[in-house]
Amino acid sequence: MAGSAPMLLTVVLFGPDRTQLCQPAFIKTTGDTPMSKLTACFCRWLQQPETAVGFTCNGKPLQTGSATPTELGLANGGTLHATLADGATLGEPPAGLPFLDVTDYELSALADLLSVAR
Description:
Layout: E1 6-14, E2 25-30, H1 35-46, E3 53-57, E4 60-61, E5 79-84, E6 99-101, H2 102-117
Parallel strand pairs: 1-5, 2-6
Antiparallel strand pairs: 1-2, 3-4, 3-5
């Protein structure tokens, strides 16, 4: 990630009926971060398994894998749409305008794993 400039992406969450469920989330990342890390960050913040949220980019289903924002043509300020799967429950929608950082969420997930391993 050292060679890529920072970027900020917006993720808007919708229900299965296309109703917006909460304020957009802003995710700080870089253009060469795999999309799988961005979607994992968002799902972790949302407290949902990744299988419960589908993502679209420019109206097309997003195949996360190792594709990067740059490879997908996303520019700084670009938007992803996330849709909660049928049967998934959100609980209390997150309030405010969250600013997420992919690196912070990866470190938090690692810390959680290490505390479980003790």
